[in-house]
Amino acid sequence: MKINKFFVASFALVLIIALVVPLFADALVPGPFDYFQKVIAKAEDSTGPIMAKVIDIFSRFVLGMILMLASADLLDKVVFAQADWLTISESPMVIIGWRFTVGLANMSIILFLIFLAFQLILKIDTPETKKALVRLFLVAFLLNFSLVFIEVILDVVDVFYTSILLSVREIPNIGAESLFGAMAETLIGGKSRVVRDFTLMMIGWAVAAWVPGGVIKHTIISVTYVVAYLPIILGWLIQAIFFYMIAGVFALLTFLFVVRVYVLQFLAILSPLAILALILKQTRKYFNTWLQHFVQWLLLGLFLIFFMALGVASLNVIMPPSLYEPSGQWLGVIPFASWRGVPREIAFYFFVFCYLAVVIWLAKKATPEIAQAMIDTVKAVPGMVWTQGIKPLGSAMRKEAGDAARATEKQEEKYNEEVEKATEQKKDPPKKPRSLTVAGWAAKRVRTLYHWQGTTPELEESKETEAGAAELEKQFGKDTKSAMEVVGYKGKSDRIKSKMALYLAKMEGGGERGLGMLDEYDRREAAELVGDRTPYNLKTMVAHTPGVLSDKEARRKDLAEARAEGDEVTAMAINEYEKAEKAGDQAKMEELQPATIRRCGEATERIRNKMVKEGISQNPDGTFKDSDIQAMSKAGVLIDGQDINTLIQSDIGKIKVIRAAAFKKSVEAMKTSDIENLAISTIEDSNFQESVARYRSDTSFIRKIGEEKGQQYIDKIRAKMENLGAKEIAKTNLAVLRSSVRNPGFRSIFSPISGAANEKEIGALETDIKAKQMGVAKITRGPITLPPTRPPEVPKNWVHDDDKKTWIPPKGHTPRVPVSPADEHGVVEEIRKMTKELNRLREEPMKSEAEKEAITMLENTIKEFREKLGK
Amino acid sequence: MIMLGEYTKEDFWKLYKKLPQEIKDALFAEETGNNIFEICRRNKIAKNLDEIVNYTGQVLLGVLPPEEFQEILEKKLKIGKEEAKKINREIFRFIFYPIKTSLEELYKIEIKPLADSLATSPEDKPLKKILSEGPATEEKKSEEETDIYRESY
User: Fold this and answer.
1) Residue of A701, A734, A742, A761 to mutate, testing the B interface (most B Cβ within 10 Å of its Cβ)
2) Is this complex scored with an ipTM above 0.85?
């Protein structure tokens, strides 16, 4: 059977295009691809990971098949054309070249003849002179007929070639001019096999798409996958490996056969000079070299073609039935039966593998030296093309694909959020754009490709950004201004921007020569870009420019932009909002807030949300998912006088909580060494000062601010602390209050604040916090649960009812069931501890307000516990 | 020389900049503050914590020679000689001695350890443990005096 290679190749190409290329939607008339699209989209929901692998393997299989068919076709053409191409007497190049060399050789013979004549005339001849004279005549004869001799030799060899090729034609399944094509077809197993496999795959998808969801769907998919898909996928995998390998061998042979034609032509041109070299002993070696090359190139491929022909004949004998019997073509569609052919198929390919290994070894041994050198050169050319062209281009394409994949994933996340929001609001969810479905599918493929390389787009981006920043550092050092002039920021790609931003942050932090060189929006964008590509740097970026978390600064920028662009609505909204803020009109602020946000405000919100990914969401037990918000809540931190639980009731309150948590994270992430590059505007930022006051307990941090920036900035942080009050600071940073009293160095630059002026006051604050925490613990614990211990002890006069398996009190007496002493243990222990603390506080000579409050609280709590016990 | 207790924050920074790094770190070390507090608590002079912190800081800043520390305690804080000696000994042992070399450079003097404050190295035991053992007895002192293997200071 003769295969129509172009049909197979074209069909495979259409399949690939149908799977990969995005399709245009026509809402009214569904096209044929809509079906596939729908099938893919539906099937992916449940079979995504499996399908991704199946499609990847199938794509490789098809690509390998195309490569093998193309190389086989080319090789067939080259081999069958050898005889025509080597008719050297009809080649103008050979004739012109040969005439030139034969003229040159004849001239040399004449000169040599004159030389010999002089030897004889002058009687200075030797016995060798006469021998040379004989050889001279012989050589003169040979070189003038060299082209005829060579053509005769080529014709003789051609007889062998032709006889082998003619014998190949008698092998079943081989066309008139197809030897390697026949072999390729045999390995593919016929076009009907490809059609069958693909149809089976489509049936699987269709089943996956249309079967109702849930367990049934998954079961059907799993069963279909195992009984029908797996043998096919295994087949594709094995075949794909062979296809690439054979395509490589065929390409090498094609190259050698083309080269053979030119080499033999050149050798024919040089033949007169080679024969001339026979005259002298000293030059005879040149003839030998010429002859050696001539014979090698002449016989090149003769053995290969012979063995290849034998191989094709053998393949037909050992081929599994499913590969050549028409009845076996559709064996694969029968579940379980498809597995029957797998061992035979593996055995078949194992044979092919061994056979090819022998053929390749022979080819290598029979390859002439020049051919080997040429192969090496040719090998180097693709290497150069690879390193200089394809690799950088491929790398760039891969990066772009990675970027696109990540962008698509973000869009998908956004879409999912919208769907979630719509579901919450009981509205119809927005329709997923088709472009997003296709792009999402492609994004998964790109991610798979990255996965195969043992990496992810995120990891690659992160490495590239870090490397880019390091490169800038190497190139410009601390001269950030020059870097900005040469590389720039505005108008550059995100990739360059992120590198530049990271470089600026590392060199000069948020200072005037660092991120301070960027405007308000660009600073936010820089933080976002760096955070996207190197998430671990986000906190530090924000710590350098905490202003990026501030809505106030964002509003200022947005207002300027709104005015510049004539956006009066936003400008008015911002003005009104600021008025409401001054007036403390919370309701109006809440109403206006969405209208005040533009580019800068949006970026601010995004950065905050990235810093506090969990937002204000809570666990089922009521604790906050974000550890910092939970810590703030637990400590009872007040933001603008309100606690966290109150704040999260309003939208503005939520923003305040998230902003405070974001500041906490960034300030805590700062290293003492970062202060060197910290912008003055950062230290002057009220939120920054508050975060330092609340959360930096290490005196070295504040000391460094004094060393690097001056005492006045320490005074500002202290003033902020004073403003917040000792009670508020003590909730999160007792250590700094203690250091201001005990530490000789710190005390000199940071005098104790009111309410924490000495150890006694600090001790009282600590007691207060502990007492409150105990109160909080009681509330969060909910109803008191008594520990399960021994079975309850009942009064002795109670009677046990064995039938009802319970204790019956005496008639006329219905006492309260007492709690056993063991059950009381936990509660009693709690009361004991609190009473001890209460007594200690009562004994203290000085009673601050905080202490008095703590005493009252303890008294109330103890009372409550006692009531619970009914005592 | 700046008079005791009269230096401002600006003066502090001027003096601080000239200090060896070891003393700078000791000035701000959390351990320094905690040691002073423990010593004051142990010796029942918590009411004088501010002053002790202040004078210790002055020694570290280079404005009060270490050998005058005990005298200052006696005169300014009006505490008995024995008590002042004990406090001096403990401050010396836990704060000044670990940075002895830097202090010697600062004051251009040679600091000799107090005989009864360095029976063991400060690193050997934590402060709380040492303090809880109580003051060295006369017997222990005599033992130390007759210990021929002890290296002379």
Assistant:
1) A742
2) no
